[in-house]
Amino acid sequence: MEKIVKTPIIFVGGKGGVGKTTISASIATKLANLKRKTLIVSTDPAHSLGDALNLKLSAKKKSITPYLDAIELDSELITNEHFKGIESALRGYANPEMFPKIKEHLELAKDSPGAQEAAILESICEIICNKDEYDHIVFDTAPTGHTIRLLSLPTIMSAWTSGLMKHQKDQEKLKDAAEVFWSKKKDSKFNPFKPSRQGRWEKAVARLEARKELFLRSSKILTNQDESSIFLVMIPQMLPLEETKRAVKSLAKYSIKCSGIFVNQIIPKEQESDFWKTQVLKQEEILNEIEHSLKNEKKFYIYLSPRDLRGVDELGKIEFIENLTDRVALT
Ligand SMILES: Nc1ncnc2c1ncn2[C@@H]1O[C@H](COP(=O)(O)OP(=O)(O)O)[C@@H](O)[C@H]1O
Ligand SMILES: [Mg+2]
């Protein structure tokens, strides 16, 4: 296990249904069994980590074994909190007459594409930046495209926050000019820059600074191979293979090296029925293709299990095989 996973942060990505949750839970269980303090985090809105661990999980950390904690991030809860934060920051310097409009706008924004991802991303970054509490943090993520976007987002978000801050600074310059104007208009009902509001304004800028810092720090951790690994999971079929090849390329674009590929649900060679014999032969062709087209990647193979892979006992026993000896010679 120490040979496979060396870093404190571990991401497990791949298409839906290939075994991400099972494998991330297995990695976390194995690390915990080695007495390494481990946290497993489910970031997939379609949570099934609780099912894999055979336990009810929630957005509150739960201790599974003395060395293993688990949490399922609740995207709705996080999004609501995230938007509450934005609302209170905006109330700090917006005209009170605008409040109903702001609220209406934020309610709509909450359902806009990407809003939940942005909120979840911030939570993930917070967990990553507080990693010292654990030896390892394993993220069971949502399907592939999503994960890669997630890993590239901190860089993009920190750039975006910088832009926002520059905008705020320009506004501050405007504020100086405006103050002269307002000081002459004593009967004005609203002055966003009068001293009591100014404190809040600075708080809002400080919030953005903190956010930018959070994204920058996370981005550094995510792109550092000594701190973060990303494993991709696939099954030996053509479409998952194509998707995995694309994922490896996309990761490289963000300077993230794939740490290994789990080829899950391998059918054992010895089969009685013609149906399964045919499946084994088909699988063999894909396995050859995997070796050929992903030859620079480390690969770990996992057999399709006849047993239900649930609960830490079963998960801890899953074998990650480096050299598949059980191969059929194709003529
Ligand atoms: N090697 C395996 N052998 C048998 N069943 C497996 C194996 N890997 C995964 N499964 C089962 O397949 C289903 C999907 O796996 P899961 O880990 O939830 O996939 P994902 O998280 O990628 O959607 C689950 O019911 C799981 O128990
Ligand atoms: Mg899953």
Bound molecules: adenosine-5'-diphosphate, magnesium ion
Globular, elongated, flat, extended or rod-shaped: what is the shape?
elongated
Mean pLDDT: 85
Uncertain runs with pLDDT below 50, 5 residues or more? none
Strand order of the largest sheet: 3-4-2-5-1-6-7-8
Number of E strands: 8
Largest sheet: 8 strands, mixed
Q: In percent, how much strand structure appears in the residues?
A: 5-15%
DSSP helical segment count: 10
Query: Considering DSSP H and I runs of 4 or more, what fraction of the residues is helical?
Result: 40-55%
What is the rounded Rg? 25 Å
Give the N-terminus to C-terminus distance in angstroms.
35 Å
- What structural category characterises the helix and strand content? alpha/beta
Helix and strand string, N-terminal first?
EHEHEEHHHEHHEHEHEH
Describe the structure.
53% of the residues lie in helices and 14% in strands. The radius of gyration is 25 Å and the shape is elongated. Strand 3 and strand 4 form a beta hairpin. The chain is α/β, with parallel strands linked by helices and 331 residues long. It is built from 10 helices and 8 strands. It has an 8-stranded mixed β-sheet, sandwiched between helices. The model has no long low-confidence stretch (mean pLDDT 85). Bound molecules: adenosine-5'-diphosphate and magnesium ion (MG). The site of magnesium ion (MG) has 5 residues, from helix 1.
